[in-house]
Amino acid sequence: MESKDIATGHPKSCWRSNSWKRIWLKRRANINYERSFLLIFGSAGLVIIVYNILIASPIPICLIPDDDLTTVSPSESPRELKQNYDFLSEGDKAFFWETGGNQTLNIRQACAVESLALHNPSVTVYMLFSQERVNSSSITLRTLTENYKNIRIIGINMNNFMTGSALEHWYKFTDWRKGPFNVSHFSDALRFATLSKYGGYYFDLDLIHLQPVTHYRNFFATEDGIIVSAGAIHADYGHPIMQLAISDFVVNYRADVWGHNGPALLGRVITKWCAVPKLREATYLRCRGFSVLPNASFYPVHYPRWREFFHQRAPNDTMTPDWLTTEVIGVHIWNKISYGEPVYRNSTQYYTQLARTHCPAIFSIASDVF
Question: What does residue 21 show for φ and ψ, rounded to 5 degrees?
Fold first, then answer.
């Protein structure tokens, strides 16, 4: 006769089997619970680590729409060159362009970038190169990024940058590269395209800033009261005047005239926008809130007098030059004609004095003659 359990009435062998099954299931449940517990807390820990890296870290990480901008640099590059940045982010922004095919900046160019960043710490300063390869280990670029958190250095994929813009056909399908002033005209195109696309400030790389520029918005500057300069511009994002500049560039482009697509273009645009026949009549009211700043703002020394920046004065000559007034925001050095003139680090030249004060980090790494 089969033995049965008194309490359950089931055969004892079956009871033992079910008992072990219950124990086994209970242990499996405990293991699954422990695994779930570890998974939850492991995930929480991972979230905390990612937060500290991406959010709490002082390193800015931004994205650029459509992959317009890419940074290519050695693995030991400074943090700035490893990130992408969104030009449409909040706050003021300023742009420089290097369009000569160089992968770094010389001392004078770097001085211009530092001076803007120094006097405008709230402005994000973008140093853009017209090719993807940037020598981030060069002493000038390294000095800029190590001393100023508001400087970004980025190499550009030009095909991507121009794709979809009003200048795409001009850039990709015309023979502008064969013109005698192709680099200059390329630079003109890029400054207009950049401000049209993103808004902000544009400055030439031979302009030393002496004071903040953020008090001034929506402006061109004049060299002499007659000619509009293309070396110092501000336009708010989406301002129609930059669309006019782009349209004029495409329709009226001339490869054979140096200033036709830059200063002369801005002269045509501002008189059209302001509905005036001459630049002198382009007042703030007539120009609907757009300004033409006087030459003292950025061009206190006109180009025929460019040697004043490099003249060696007597050691006891401490007089301030007559052109250095409170109206001066920045000083254009006329690099196109002055690039070969030497600057002596321990001299009384005006350029030396300006550089020592307004780009101190770059000046500290300059050689005796630069």
Answer: -65, -40
Range with the poorest average pLDDT among 6-15, 74-83, 157-166, 309-318: 74-83
Task: Report which of 343, 348, 341, 342 is spatially closest to residue 313, judged by C-alpha positions.
Answer: 348
Cα(292)–Cα(281) distance, rounded to whole angstroms?
10
Local structure of residue 296 (DSSP, 8 states): H
The whole-chain average pLDDT of the chain stands at: 84
Contact yes or no for 231/263 (Cβ under 8 A): no
Query: Is the distance from CB of 335 to CB of 108 less than 8 angstroms?
Result: yes
What number of other Cβ atoms are within 10 A of residue 59's Cβ? 11
How far apart (Å, rounded) are the C-alpha atoms in residues 161 and 155? Answer: 11
DSSP letter at 62 equals B
- DSSP run (H or E) holding 66: none
pTM to 2 decimal places: 0.78
Task: Give me the helices (H) in the chain, please.
Answer: 12-51, 107-119, 139-147, 158-162, 168-173, 182-198, 240-252, 263-274, 295-298, 335-338, 350-358, 360-365
pLDDT digits (tens, 9 = 90+) for 279-315: 999 999 999 999 999 999 999 999 999 999 999 998 8
